[in-house]
Amino acid sequence: MEGLKNKTIWDDGATEITIIVGLSKKRILESDELKWNKEDGQDGRRYLTLGEIANQINEIELGNFRKRGFDERTLTGYRPFITIIEEIGLSGRIYQYGNYGPEWVLHGTTKGYA
Length: 114
Description:
Blueprint (H helix, E strand, L loop, with lengths): L7 E4 L4 E6 L5 E3 L7 E2 L7 E4 H18 L4 H4 L6 E7 L2 E8 L2 E10 L4
Antiparallel strand pairs: 1-5, 2-3, 2-6, 4-5, 6-7, 7-8
């Protein structure tokens, strides 16, 4: 499902977005940690593609490892494990990145809030 990297995620107030980073030590990423694109027009809704989210989180996580003194050689090829839960009242989608290589997969759908 390589095409999912271009899927747009909206941070518009109507959609609940939960971004979880990590496997054994999970953390919820605050949406303000990402640099969102703004839609032109009056509303100025924020959005990112799944590919942009993966790239930004990868840089955030690599920066955190560097601050803790990890050797650059051990970080070669690193990719984070990311779960995104996108919920809109009556439906939702769960996307995952990093479990099957550097690509996004649609892990599941929900009926209502997960």
